[in-house]
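debug: dumping io for the single-chain case to check the tokenizer round-trip. Nothing else runs in this session.
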Amino acid sequence: MSKHPKRIVGGVNAPKGFSTATAACGIKRSSPKSGPLRNDLCLVVSDIPAAAAGVFTTNLVKAAPVLLSRRHLDNARASAVLLNSGNANACTGEPGEQAAEETAIVTALALDIPLDEVLVCSTGRIGVQLPIGKMIPGIEHAAWSLQNTPAAATEAAKSIMTSDTVPKQSAYEVKIGNKVFRIGGLAKGAGMISPNMATMLCVITTDAAVPPAFLQKALGEVISQTFNCISVDGDCSTNDTVLLLANGTSAVAIKSAGEKKIFSEALHMVCADLARAIVADGEGTSRVIALTVIGAKSNADAHKIARSVANSQLVKSAWAGGDPNWGRILCAAGYAGVDFDPGKVEIIYDGMSAAKNGMECQDAKGEAALRKIAAKKEFAVTVDLHSGKGEARLLTTDLTEDYVRLNLTEFSL
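debug: decoded output
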């Protein structure tokens, strides 16, 4: 029914009927030596109202834009997403909620769309009131300068960067029969990456026509396998948001079970690309580790152990030093709150066993080989509990001194 999805350029502008624009509002802090103001606001707009779905942070402390977007998604429709960087509008009380509402009102008026079809996202420093006076001219400028080009999509991805070093985008073209639909996304995130339901900020667009109920279901399922399976530093942010808009302009209707499977696979590919890009760009990281836990009594047990290992500062520090310290991995598995037999555990680096039956299994030559593996920029670690069929996979990173330096004075979401 479908050929393998084809990777294409264009990010959120790759699907038909979507356009983006940016503005420099002066939200991001800058010094006289930093040069011209950087873009810190963008709009992602659908030509027609789109079916919409969203997944948000599970942190009890939720930013004002999260609260507003959740309310607006009650109708499962959206025409525009407004995103800003440099200010999280979190822990800002009623004034912050009023500011989020005001930005949505300005956006709705500028685009001539219903207020409840505007979704809002913010990222940046916590506890600072949103500079609404600076944002209003920026929103109006962006609304007048929308473009549907790949270059415009890239500028949008750049505008929401905080401690990110590179913009993050992905897009695919999918053929079903003799028709084609596209799906694309942008994301930002480099720190505070350990969510329970979403990660940082992400907007995904598609020109397929997708029923809202299935759109929400598919997004939740894919997030559990992608954005929920990464960890940089173990912190869950106040602003985590993933939004998915489907405007149907391709005339490809996702109805049958086969079509839904194809759509979900394409959505998974976009989210997996963006999730991996976030890990690779993690604050102060030098290595990306594909961590797999197998042989657990259940998938839930495997995930708990994987999360415990991935978030262990001792494990991550060892990896930063190129040290295949299997003892720290076994230790982190042991305090995950999961019952297993330590005497059965095997720990493997890129196919080479570092420990078997819970004990060291390599001589000096083997240890040297393991250190070469752990010194690579990317490697795989498998923890086999030999206790069942449960398994889980996570992408994680090491932890370097640069992470501390980056977060001494800046609190970026």
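debug: round-trip ok. The chain has two domains: 6-280, 288-397.
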